[in-house]
Amino acid sequence: MTASPRTRRATAALIVPLLIPFAAACGSEEPSKDGAIPAVSASAQDEKPKIDKGEGDPPKKLKTKVLKQGKGPKVRKGDVVNATYHGQLWNGKVFDTTWKKGGEPVSFQLGRGSVIPGWDEGLVGQRMGSRVELVVPPDKAYGNKSQGPIPKNSTLVFVVDLKKTLPNKVDGKPVEEPDPELPEVSTEITDKAPKIEVEKGAKAPKGVRSTTVLEGDGEEITSESTVLANFTAKLWNGEPFANSWQQTGPQDYPVKQMVGWEKGLEGKKQGSRVVISVPREEFPKKARAQIPSDVVFSVDVLSVK
C-alpha cells in the first residue's frame, strides 16, 4: 500500500470495513509432515463448513485441497471473484465467516496484491464452482503483525467457495458533455486509476453533485444497491486522497454506507464511471479532522446487486 498514514486513516472512515483478507493458487494437497490439513465436514457449496482444529505443528508451506471440483473456467490472475469463505486459526478459533453475514458472497481481485499472498497463490488456477481448503502459513498471511482478531505469526485455515467471476473494468461509452463544474476525469480504461484534473483555485459546488463520464448500460443503481467498484479520489485542493487501484482493488460497497455515494450514484448504471463531489461537511466529525477540503471521487461501477 502506498497511501500515506493520514490518507489511510481518512479512507478507513469512508470504506465499509469488509474483511476480505486473502488470496491463493496452487499448494500441495499432500498432508504436511508436521501437521495434517484439518478435516472439513461439508464439501458441498452453500453448506456452512465445519473445520476441525489443527493437530500438531502447522505446515510451514501453503497447503491447498480441492474439496469439491467445480466445472467452470479456471481463475486467472487479475480476475474479480465472487465467493463465500470461512476462516479460522490453526487452533480452531473462527475469526471471520461470510455465513455470519447471511451467507452473502463477497468480491475481491486475485493476483494483484489486493488479498493475502496465500489466496493469490492458492485460488488462481482453481475452477469456478469449486470448494477449496487453504492452510496459509504466516509468511503467506499477515506475518509478525496482528490483524484484528488474528494474532501475529498465525497459521490460517480457510474454506472458500468460488461462485463466479465479475467484470474487472467498466465498459461504458464516453459522455459528450459531462458537468463542466466538476473536475475533468480521464475516460481511458486501463489497469490504473483514471486521472482527476482539479484546476488550481477551482471551487467545489455546494452539496453532493455528480456527473457520468463513461455511461454503461447495465443495471441501475438504487439507494439499496451494493456496488462492486474501484475508485480514486482527490481533495479539491489537488492533493491525492485515496486510490483503490493501489490499495484494495475492487470491492463491494453498500452505497448507503459510503459518504456521498447514495446521492451521487443513484440512477447511474453498471459499467459507468461517475464523478462525485462531496462537501467536507458531509463526512463524520472524526473524518473531517483528516480532510482539509471537499473531496471529488471517480467511481468505476463494475457490478450492481
Automatic annotation (TrEMBL):
Catalytic activity: [protein]-peptidylproline (omega=180) = [protein]-peptidylproline (omega=0)
Region (Disordered) residue spans: 28-75
InterPro entries for the chain: PPIase_dom_sf (IPR046357), PPIase_FKBP_dom (IPR001179)
Signal peptide (UniProt feature, chain positions): 1-25
Superkingdom classification of source: Bacteria
Domain PPIase FKBP-type: 78-166, 224-305
Keywords, sorted A to Z: Isomerase, Rotamase, Signal
Enzyme Commission number(s) of this protein: 5.2.1.8
Pfam families: FKBP_C (PF00254)
SUPFAM superfamilies hit by this protein: FKBP-like
Record field: compositional bias (Basic and acidic residues): 45-60
GO molecular function, one term: peptidyl-prolyl cis-trans isomerase activity
Bias-annotated ranges (Basic residues): 61-75
Family note: Belongs to the FKBP-type PPIase family.
Name of protein: Peptidyl-prolyl cis-trans isomerase
Species annotation: Streptomyces oceani
